[in-house]
Amino acid sequence: VVPLSEIYLYSDTSGIDWQTTIQDKDSAVVVEEIKALTSDAFKLSDLRMMANKIDESIPGFPVNGSTSGVNRVYEKILLSTEQDLNIIAQGSGELVEKKIAESLDSQIAKFDRDVILKEASVYKDIGETHKEVVGKRRIRIEDRKQKRRVAALENYTCQVCGFYCEYENNGQKSWIIEVDHIIEKSQGGGEELNNLWVLCPNCHKKKTRGIITIDSITKQVKELGLDLQISNNHWE
Ligand SMILES: [Zn+2]
């Protein structure tokens, strides 16, 4: 279980200059940044209301001080919200990723396959890059959700070798599976349906090392230069 203290919530932070200290910023810039930060922020009063609906005794979400005392109900609400949130994760990134994936998987499981496919097809990449924020990583929930949609559409099964591994973790169904960008994000690839595919850790590693290749347009896959037939349940 990941302690909530590793997850921090902000609104859209893409336009914020995190490198310059506030003292060195022009006041007009600070005003613009505050506007940007609050424009789609999740209201703490709403958050508190939602938490109190679940349990009236839950204390307010702490704004100052340690986050270790944050009630777990908040974590559940934040990870399941439909709002497109940016989460800045610190500490054990892998665990935070896993937790987010599990939360999204259980949301996606409520929908039929054609609904998931439709949502995945209309997904628009907004072209944001994943900035490193001094030791923290920004996680855009909508991007994560799109990846988990693709994992669901492929039945959490490696498209190359058919690897499938389901297990249970604290009553939550999980899978060992990875969703990869065909064109890497650093090369301009996004989370469009056409640019994502589902791989097991082994095949993913082979792709990273160039042993497995995929043509981004024809989707022809090769291993050490030889053509491979792969399964596909999400590309046209
Ligand atoms: Zn595989």
Question: In words, what does this structure look like?
Answer:
The chain is 33% helix and 17% strand. The strands form four sheets. The chain has a four-stranded antiparallel β-sheet with strand order 1-2-4-3. A hairpin with a 2-residue loop joins strand 10 and strand 11. The protein has helices spanning 27-39, 44-54, 72-80, 93-108, 113-121, 141-153, 201-208, and strands spanning 7-10, 86-89, 132-133, 136-140, 166-169, 172-175, 178-181, 196-199, 212-214, 221-223, 226-228. The two termini are 38 Å apart. Helix 5 crosses helix 6 (141-153). The model is unreliable at 1-6 (pLDDT under 50). It is of the alpha+beta class. The structure holds zinc ion. Zinc ion is lined by residues 158, 160-161, 163, 199-200, 202-203. Residues 158, 160-161, 163, 199-200, 202-203 line the site of zinc ion.
